[in-house]
Design brief:
457 residues, alpha+beta, four-stranded antiparallel sheet, 6 helices, 28 strands
Length: 457
C-alpha cells in the first residue's frame, strides 16, 4: 500500500558500507565519504517525498473519520513535522562530521609524515561515520491507519551478531530475581560444598552474625561450617545428635537451634558450639514433636516448627513453652481439631516476616499462613508433574523479591506469592532439601550440597 512505498524503495538501496574501501587510505576513505554524502542527498529527497505522501495519507484517513478526530490529525501532522525536523538535523550533523574528517584526511595526504596515532583516530572516525550513515539510511517512517499512529524506526539488518549484542544488553537490564528474570534464567552449578564425613545433608542456613554457612549432615550426625568463600572451616557434633535436620539462629543471644528429627527435640547451641539445653520431646500433646522436619525463628523471636509426624506447625517460645498451632482449626463444639496439613516438610519465613510458607508434602500443595495470627492466606498446587503442579514438595524458600522456590521431585519451581507459576528447572532427583541465599540455590544431595546460581545465558 501507499504507506510502505518508501520502505520498499529504501529496501532496494545498497548498504553504503558494503562498497569496498581501503581502510587507512585517505583518498579511498575521502571518496567513500563523498559517495556517502551524495547518496544521502538522494535519500533525503526520497525521505522528504515519503513524508509528504504519508502526510497526505494521514489527511485522507482522518477526513473519513468523525469530526472529533481532527485534533488527532493535527497532532499527527505536528509529529511528522517534528520527525522531519529531527531527521534533517541528524543529517546535517552527519554532514558536518563528514566534512570535518575530509579536511583532516586532506591534511594527512599533504603531510609527508604519517603519524600512527592520528591515522588510527581517522580510521575510527571513518568507521563510526559509515556505521552511522548505514543507520540513518535504514530509518523509515510509516503510518498505521488502524491505530492512527506514526512509527519511526530503523529497519533491522540481516545480521545475527548485532541481535545477540542487543539481546544481551537488554537481558542485562533485567533486575535479578524479578518475574521476567526467572522466565529467562537457568540454574548453573557453581561448586559442591562437602567434607570428608558428609552424608545426607538436609539443611543449609546462613549464620547472621558470622556470614558463614551451616550445613546439617543428618547421616554423619554433625554440623559443618563453611566460610563466605565456600571454604570448609570445621564441623562439630554431640552425642545427643541422632538426625540433625534443620537450623535456626537467634542473633540477640548468638544461639543456634538444631532440630533433631529422630530425637523429636531441639538442641540449643552456644557460640562455642556446645549444646547448652534441649527443647521439646516426642509426643502428640501441645509442645511435643513427632519426627519434625524444619525449624525457623519468626520476627517475634519464637520458634516455628514443622511437626511432620503430627501433621501440624507449632509455634514455641525459645524455652519450649507452647504458643500456638498453625494448620489446625478447632472443630465446632470444641471436639478436636481439623487439619489442613499432611506430613508437612520445609517451612520458610517471608522477607518481611509476615508470612510462613509450608510445603504440604502429603497434600501436594503449598500453604501460606500469617506469621502473627496463623490465619490461612494462600493455598495452591495439585498433584502432577506438569509445570505448576506438585509431586510431593519437600522444601521451599522465599527469595528476596517475594517469589517462592519449591523443591519437588526432580525440579525447582518458581511461583509468585499468589501461586502463579513462573519457571521450572530440572535438578537431580531425590534431593534432601533446598535453601535460597541471594541469587544462589543450595541443593542438598547425598554426599554434598550443590551450590547453584540463577543466570541468564
Amino acid at each position: 500500500d501507499e504507506n510502505s512505498q518508501g520502505v520498499r524503495r529504501r529496501g532496494n538501496q545498497r548498504t553504503i558500507s558494503e562498497s569496498g574501501v581501503n581502510i587507512g587510505d585517505p583518498l579511498s576513505m575521502k571518496r567513500q565519504l563523498q559517495i556517502s554524502s551524495s547518496n544521502l542527498e538522494e535519500f533525503e529527497t526520497k525521505f522528504q517525498n515519503d513524508i509528504q505522501e504519508i502526510s497526505q495519507n494521514v489527511h485522507n484517513s482522518i477526513e473519513k473519520s468523525i469530526d472529533d478526530l481532527i485534533k488527532k490529525r493535527d497532532a499527527l501532522g505536528k509529529q511528522l513535522n517534528k520527525i522531519l525536523t529531527d531527521k534533517l538535523e541528524i543529517h546535517e550533523n552527519w554532514r558536518a562530521q563528514s566534512e570535518d574528517l575530509i579536511e583532516k584526511l586532506d591534511d594527512e595526504k599533504d603531510t609527508s609524515e604519517n603519524h600512527i596515532d592520528q591515522k588510527n583516530t581517522h580510521v575510527n572516525s571513518f568507521y563510526g561515520l559509515i556505521n552511522k550513515i548505514d543507520k540513518i539510511c535504514n530509518e523509515t517512517v510509516s503510518f498505521d491507519p488502524a491505530s492512527l499512529s506514526i512509527n519511526w524506526y530503523c529497519e533491522k539488518k540481516k545480521s545475527l551478531e548485532p541481535n545477540k549484542v542487543t539481546r544481551k544488553a537488554l537481558l542485562n537490564t533485567l533486575p535479578a530475581l524479578s518475574t521476567e528474570f526467572y522466565k529467562l534464567a537457568t540454574l548453573e552449578e557453581v561448586r559442591k560444598l562437602k567434607w570428608q564425613n558428609c552424608l545426607q545433608p538436609r539443611c543449609v542456613a546462613l549464620c547472621p552474625w558470622t556470614g558463614q554457612i551451616w550445613v546439617c549432615s543428618s547421616g554423619s550426625r554433625e554440623i559443618a561450617i563453611f566460610d563466605s568463600d565456600d571454604t570448609f572451616v570445621h564441623s562439630f557434633t554431640n552425642s545427643a545428635f541422632l538426625f540433625p535436620c534443620s537450623i535456626a539462629f537467634k542473633i540477640e543471644t548468638k544461639e543456634a537451634f538444631v532440630l533433631d528429627k529422630r530425637q523429636s527435640s531441639i538442641f540449643v547451641i552456644s557460640p562455642s558450639y556446645q549444646v547448652t539445653r534441649s527443647i521439646g520431646k516426642g509426643g502428640k500433646k501441645s509442645g511435643c514433636l513427632n519426627s519434625p522436619a524444619a525449624i525457623l525463628l519468626d520476627n517475634k523471636g519464637r520458634l516455628v516448627v514443622s511437626d511432620h509426624g503430627n501433621d501440624r506447625i507449632q509455634v514455641l517460645e525459645t524455652d519450649g513453652t507452647f504458643v500456638a498451632y498453625i494448620g489446625l482449626h478447632h472443630q465446632e463444639g470444641g471436639k478436636g481439631y481439623l487439619q489442613d496439613l499432611s506430613s508437612p516438610g520445609g517451612i520458610a519465613l517471608s522477607v518481611d516476616g509476615r508470612a510462613v510458607a509450608v510445603a504440604d508434602t502429603g497434600n501436594n500443595r503449598i500453604r501460606i499462613y500469617s506469621a502473627n495470627s496463623g490465619r490461612s492466606l494462600q493455598c495452591f498446587g495439585m498433584r502432577g508433574r506438569a509445570n505448576g503442579q506438585l509431586e510431593k514438595p519437600i522444601d521451599l524458600s522465599w527469595d528476596t523479591q517475594g517469589h517462592l522456590l519449591v523443591l519437588d521431585e526432580g525440579r525447582v519451581q518458581v511461583f509468585t506469592e499468589k501461586g502463579d507459576f513462573l519457571r521450572a528447572q530440572k535438578v537431580t532427583e531425590h534431593l534432601n532439601g533446598m535453601s535460597a541465599i541471594g541469587q544462589c540455590v543450595l541443593l542438598s544431595d547425598t554426599y554434598s550440597v550443590n551450590k547453584m546460581i540463577w543466570k541468564i545465558k
